[in-house]
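#structure-requests
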Amino acid sequence: MKGFGGMMTIEIDGGYEETMKFADSLKIFRIAPSLGGAESLCTQPVTTTHHGLPEEELQIRGITPSMIRLSIGLEDTEDLIADLNQALQKV
């Protein structure tokens, strides 16, 4: 992509705790309750946008405790990749 950001969803090996550790370890990506700024953001749907839904509803929607949604901002690509890699090494 050129000239604009993108949205992606990733699954972290492990569960809720490992996913929280990953999100907390990010240095460039900022944790946000919703995605939509010029900066790179991340959210864990089970703790933000889908918090409080019953387990059955989460399953229907495909929302897992290990899901992270990333909104790719305007930062340098290599910096973002390095940030993701360093956070993945901590889980």
